[in-house]
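User:
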Amino acid sequence: MSTGEEEVVGTLEVRGGKIRIPAVRAFVRETHHHRELSFFVPPGSIIRVKDPVKLIIAGPVPRVISAKVAAHMPSARGDIGDHYDAKIAGEEQYPDGLDKPPVIIA
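Assistant: Predicted structure:
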């Protein structure tokens, strides 16, 4: 049962920044029980189940969403890329920029 969904675009960091993928399209879904990040990356990206990921979203107030990959579902449409789901562990906002301390919001 979904209570909300937000589409975002940002830079995806995998395994502590060892892999960086720019312009990743993602959806943040919120249910009554948990929050989930669903995203698409170019085919052939080396992401595994249980990998820690961070989605860095630029904007007036930058955000960083931390998650752990829960499932990989190869997309039948090659133009979209590979589809992954991840369980959100937390989210931070950086009202003073990414070089200042964050405000933890979830």
